[in-house]
Amino acid sequence: MKFSEGYDMKHFAYDLIKKKITEKMANECMFKPTVLSYPKTFQNEVIITEKDNTLHKRDSFNIIRESKVFIQFDIYTKDTEIEGQMYSRYSVYRDIEEIVDKVCTDRYNLRVITSKPTPNLDRDVYKHTIIYECTQIDTKGYFF
After folding, report:
1. Each residue of 58-84: b (16+ CB within 10 Å) or e?
2. CA 101 to chain centre
3. First-to-last CA distance in the chain?
4. Using one digit for the tens of pLDDT, what is the confidence trace for 23-72?
5. Backbone angles phi, psi at 88, to 5 degrees
6. Which whole-number Å values give the CA distances from 99 to 17, 30, 67, 105, in the listed order?
7. Across the chain, how many H-helices and E-strands are there?
8. pLDDT of 8 above 60
9. 8 Å CB contact between 144 and 13
């Protein structure tokens, strides 16, 4: 995937994915979750963090060529009522997760490393963690 101008080259995969997820959630998700870098209210939120961005390969001039990037999504959902219809927190999660997966897997070919429910102290909130992996070429603006 070719990178567009205006982003920090070291973090371009994370920046681009976060931008696209934010756009898709605003336009396509009926639950309108908030997309953040850290949790705030734990009500229908998608928290996106760059878990790791480590050197993978160097070229013969000792310039970093490829980095392994791990992007973590923590999805927090609550039971939600829209126009008199009640949706369970798991149904809300599935709708949000479908959009995240379309962007990350279908559009940008990121690989799922882990996807699991995460223990949470608040029993009214469902939390699910998904970690995606990709390799980015730091000097060219590509990731795959």
Report:
1. eeeeeeebbbebbbbbbbbbbebeeee
2. 9
3. 6
4. 999 999 999 998 988 878 778 899 998 887 766 666 666 666 777 888 99
5. -70, 160
6. 12, 11, 26, 10
7. 2, 8
8. no
9. no
- The C-alpha torsion from 135 through 138 and 142 to 143, rounded to 10°, is 20
pTM: 0.81
pLDDT band at 1 (very low <50, low <70, confident <90, very high): very low
The ranges assigned to domains in the chain are 9-143
Which CATH architecture is the domain 9-143 placed in?
2-Layer Sandwich (3.30)
Hey, what are 14's tokens? 């994370």
- Torsion angle of C-alpha atoms 82, 87, 88, 92, degrees rounded to 10: -80
Q: Which distant-in-sequence residues (6+ apart) come within 8 Å of 108 by Cβ?
A: 1, 16, 17, 20, 134, 143
**Token code pair at residue 118:** 């995460």
In the predicted model, is pLDDT for residue 9 greater than 80?
no
Tell me what pLDDT residue 37 has. Answer: 84
The three-class DSSP label of residue 42 is: coil
